[in-house]
């Protein structure tokens, strides 16, 4: 068995399947995606304040930067690998997330025929800023 597949990825980008996105959008009503799959835009440069964010960030070194921005948004929902052994999980997700949902089984990203080689989780952040209304 070739274990290299389980510990690396040909790409940092994994397209969200339509069914998963639709279910999350129906619940959270997104108005901003800081890293759409086929965009050269850098969503880390955009303001997140007051937005309802869906983020499936690149699954590499930038993941931490995207997670750190989650607390800026009104609501930020992340689809990320369930890597509970990482510093970003213990330093950002555990202390700041309102909710962590571990996905049962393995997702099929985009229109892939096979499941991902890693488990996934949905992480929800909500703003703690007081409204001025």
Question: Could you say which overall geometry the principal axes of the C-alpha atoms support?
Answer: globular
Major sheet attributes: 4 strands, mixed
N-end to C-end Cα span? 59 Å
Helix content: 10-25%
Mean pLDDT across all residues, rounded? 81
Number of helices: 4
Q: Which structural category do the helix and sheet elements fall into?
A: alpha+beta
Number of domains: 1
Q: How much strand content do the residues show? A: 15-25%
Q: Uncertain runs with pLDDT below 50, 5 residues or more?
A: 1-11
Task: Return the string of H and E elements.
Answer: HHEHEHEE
- Can you list the strand order of the major beta sheet? 1-2-4-3
Polypeptide structure, described:
With 133 residues, the protein is an alpha+beta fold. The protein contains four helices and four strands; from the N terminus they run H-H-E-H-E-H-E-E. A four-stranded mixed sheet has the order 1-2-4-3, with helices on both faces. Strand 1 (52-55), helix 3 and strand 2 (75-81) form a beta-alpha-beta unit. It is globular. The relative contact order is 0.19. The model is unreliable at 1-11 (pLDDT under 50).
